[in-house]
Amino acid sequence: MRGDNMLGWAKDLFPICRSLAGPGVRETLTYLNKLLPEMTLHEVATGEQVFDWVVPQEWSVDEAYIEDEDGVRIVDFKDHNLHLVSYSEPVYEWMDLDTLDQHLYSLPDRPDAIPYVTAYYERLWGFCLSHKQRQSLKPGRYRAVVKSALYDGALSYGELLLKGREEKEILLSTYICHPSMANNELSGPVLTAALAQWIDETLSDRKYTYRIVFVPETIGAIAYLSRNLDQMKQRVVAGFVLTCVGDERCYSMIPSRTGGTRADQVLSSVLASRDDVITYSFLDRGSDERQYCSPGVDLPVAVFCRSKFGEYPEYHSSLDNFDLVTSTGLGQSFDVMADCITALEQNVYYRAITPCEPQLGRRGLYSNRGIGDIPQAALKMRHILAYADGTHDVLSLAEITGIGPDEVRDILRQLEVAGLVCAE
Amino acid sequence: MRGDNMLGWAKDLFPICRSLAGPGVRETLTYLNKLLPEMTLHEVATGEQVFDWVVPQEWSVDEAYIEDEDGVRIVDFKDHNLHLVSYSEPVYEWMDLDTLDQHLYSLPDRPDAIPYVTAYYERLWGFCLSHKQRQSLKPGRYRAVVKSALYDGALSYGELLLKGREEKEILLSTYICHPSMANNELSGPVLTAALAQWIDETLSDRKYTYRIVFVPETIGAIAYLSRNLDQMKQRVVAGFVLTCVGDERCYSMIPSRTGGTRADQVLSSVLASRDDVITYSFLDRGSDERQYCSPGVDLPVAVFCRSKFGEYPEYHSSLDNFDLVTSTGLGQSFDVMADCITALEQNVYYRAITPCEPQLGRRGLYSNRGIGDIPQAALKMRHILAYADGTHDVLSLAEITGIGPDEVRDILRQLEVAGLVCAE
Amino acid sequence: MRGDNMLGWAKDLFPICRSLAGPGVRETLTYLNKLLPEMTLHEVATGEQVFDWVVPQEWSVDEAYIEDEDGVRIVDFKDHNLHLVSYSEPVYEWMDLDTLDQHLYSLPDRPDAIPYVTAYYERLWGFCLSHKQRQSLKPGRYRAVVKSALYDGALSYGELLLKGREEKEILLSTYICHPSMANNELSGPVLTAALAQWIDETLSDRKYTYRIVFVPETIGAIAYLSRNLDQMKQRVVAGFVLTCVGDERCYSMIPSRTGGTRADQVLSSVLASRDDVITYSFLDRGSDERQYCSPGVDLPVAVFCRSKFGEYPEYHSSLDNFDLVTSTGLGQSFDVMADCITALEQNVYYRAITPCEPQLGRRGLYSNRGIGDIPQAALKMRHILAYADGTHDVLSLAEITGIGPDEVRDILRQLEVAGLVCAE
């Protein structure tokens, strides 16, 4: 059900021609804004300096095609927006095949796939097509037509702050700058939107504030950080970059640069109960964790993927479609992140309130009438109390005492009710 | 000799019906006070709040028995004080076997043993008997008689402070609330008394102050801590809970909650030279280390046992007698603790006084007339000097240099006499 | 070439009769001063207290021999200065063989070798000879003649400070108090002199200041430290004791007392690429690292040797000559130390200047026109930037990223030119 919703949103968003800045990103954010009415849209003007970078111009496309001498459009942006190199400059010119070929991109090892090519920060134009089609092109004259525009405007991003009881934040970040591809990227935004709805609706008594951002990759994250870094450094206790989360193949994580952050701990602990988990090195990074974990930024951010970007055969091509991304895959990814969030919400640090052991008996928590060993239930309660020194959360108490996390939670609940431990 | 003394005291104390509070504890403390005249006796009034607990009433027993229709006392408290559940309320009633049986306790897997059962914080009465005897009871009428009293009074404990040159303290803690059982518990108080005599008489020039406490288990330790915690946190550098130290089977230690304290180090180092050593986890704890190591108390306290409570077949039954506890066993335990105390007294941290190596030759500590390698003695002295940087004690110097602890001590003595190292 | 120079200097210095203090040390320093004109010579007066020690008298020898009844000089200091026990007091006396023999030293297990014997801090005289010769001595009368003098004067040492851009220092220390032996000791001073020339001439734009000291072993290092310790503790970031560096057998290092200093790191990293490396324990120390690493001094100093002192059969005897020490051996040792110094000079700690990744594309450092994976060069640059957080030097960046140190250096250079990282 939840997977179906996400899949439906992804299919709605699929045809839009997203790029770094321009109408495609805006249209995508508008769609997401309907799902998440509290989300606010932000723009950063072309030419604005964001840390080391400068915000690029917007790009829009009216039409783009290659036609042959018979007027047949052999490659048409209308058919698939991957056919046009992103940020292609305008062209309207007849040329022979040799000249045209210098502007063509195909994948010899995936002859049926249209590749995904960008030229954000260079002035050029180009078309992408299947290698099969490219090889079938006959010598002759072709007209390349790109009716695109590059113009000063703004970079757009969406931000949703879901307030919790505390100012401390969990960050969810995903990107919205890739054209028609399903896993990379639409799986990320739709999972993030579904999580945001769930947090808003189901986690109404949540502890943490959730900072949820939909940004164009790299430049968007940098722009966002340039506006929010100080606050995020004070508030974010764990963050996740969500990308390539729609297939059913495996589960992947890329730990933060330093490792060992709360995001790393909880994601790795949640994935421990799944099969087919791949833990990459930070050296394998590639998405906005590059910015969130850079020196001087150093936020506690890990990446969650199914098949990691760059590691699956359909990556960055027209094969990255809804044969790969499924309702089931999206649903499983939702579960992983919901488990992570639940764990973070629940993983408070416990402190025993009284020095020495409390008297469990007079609270009905301990009865040893009869003979023999201390009852297991009382022993477990004592174990939890013995380590509730303010430095251990549920998972840590579970690990130390050998009691399962759910039972640890039950026991802590009883102890909290009895006024014997408090959560910090 | 020392073992015989301890065994004699244990046999004297054996018949007394100890419990949490009442004449049994007081009589036991009075006996120990004769051995340790400087010990002071303390009382905490019934109803007084001690941390999370409330001090219970005293309990005393006049007589208690079960008699059959022929007036034969088939179970009698006079024969063995384990026959009566501790803190049994009064009863004087005829009943049939079925009703009586609900008040009987036996051990099917140890059919000859009378079990040890307590009901400190509940109102009930009961009798304990061997499973064999229980099975031999014939249907019929029985009279259960318990002439006991529960009344406001006080919890008693004994405290002995043996002043040393320094205010820093070593804690020895044992308990005095179990009726006629030899290993758990009389081995603990008699070993502690013997150690106290030895410290007082033999260690007259001791460095540390010794805080030696005889308390009813759990509630006594909590009451004691509630009165002394602040001071103990400032002063105690190592402490030991002494319990089940009278058999000859194995040596056991339970490290402190955090591990790595000076008590852990010295006990584990002393036990390293013994055979059959079992090192338990803090999760296996069960005596007053539960209080001494609880969050907020966190004293550096380890437990020393021979066969650990709960781990030997005679535990908590009438089989825990002088077949199990021997003069030899007690003597060996004395040696372990005396070694620990000696090590603590001696394990000062050494610091070389002069930068660079001192000139051993002009002090007669080094002679290399002739040929060949540096004499071993001088080389060892240099090794000790090289690591005498104020962070290593004898055991640590021994471990680093590979020189035996006794030889390390000899060398340090020479170096101290020569004014080349000082102890910190 | 460089090896030949060093070997030539060692051969020039070989005949001089060095000892702790006196004309031999002074003559050696004068020779080294010609090689290193900026070196300054220092003297510490006899009787001066240096930490725990007192500076000894000078010792000089006019002649020393044993003659037989026929006036034949069977042992003569002129033939080999090892024949005389260092610091022998004067003697001029006829005696029988038995008496003489009490003053003779030889090595039964190395019957052809004249041993090296000293008596610095004792009043005695003695001759050293091969065990073969000793055994051939016939009963009869012998005259022992030692025309030596012990007199108040001074202990001499040489110090060379080669200023760098920074006040932080690299220490090179070697000793100059052994008579005619090639590996222990002349290999040390000649390697140190060659390194000093190379640092002065080749490393003209060096970062570090080099503190290069030629001292009599032990007492000289102690005297030097007593005058310079405070400054050295502030300035020395890495130091090396150079001794026994002239043979071709193996490479040895003795780490500093604590280990893990920058000297330990760089020496062990440089030696990792050599064959036949022995890493000793600090317990195997024996030269001036004994002082540099003593408690209270604790400089970051490691020892570099080929065959370590005490570990090769020619050690401390006339067999320690130019059969053992070669031009090749000295040259290889030079390379090790030059590599260490180069590494230290280059191993600055890098910090990325901008938060988030910088925009490599607009600086011509990244071009992704076309299809496919991120270019390796750009990926490596990003990896370096990702870890340039001010805590990693070249070697550490190389280890983390798996990029070779030279390539790491190239990339850092490009990034520095582009203003994207700075060195700390």
The stretches of 5 or more residues of chain A where confidence is low (pLDDT under 50) are none
Q: Largest interface, and how many residues on either side?
A: B-C, 29 and 34 residues
Integer average pLDDT of chain A: 93
Element pattern of chain A in H and E: HHEEEEEEHEEHEEEHEHEEHEHEHEHHHE
Question: TL;DR?
Answer:
Three copies of one chain form a homotrimer. The first copy, chain A, is an alpha/beta fold.
What features would you describe in this structure?
- The structure is a homotrimer of 424-residue chains.
- Chain A has 12 helices and 18 strands.
- In chain A, the strands form 5 sheets. In chain A, strands 1-10-12-11-13-16-14-15 form an 8-stranded mixed β-sheet, with helices on both faces.
- Chain A has 3 domains: 2-56 and 154-346, Zn peptidases (Aminopeptidase, 3-Layer(aba) Sandwich); 60-151, Glucose Oxidase, domain 1 (3-Layer(bba) Sandwich); 350-423, Arc Repressor Mutant, subunit A.
- The first copy, chain A, is elongated, with a radius of gyration of 26 Å.
- In chain A, strand 11 (169-175), helix 5 (182-201) and strand 12 (209-215) form a beta-alpha-beta unit.
- In chain A, helix 10 (376-387) packs across helix 12.
- Chain A is of the alpha/beta class.
- The longest helix of chain A has 20 residues, at 182-201.
- Chains in contact: A-B, A-C, B-C.
- The interface between A and C is medium-sized, with 34 and 28 residues.
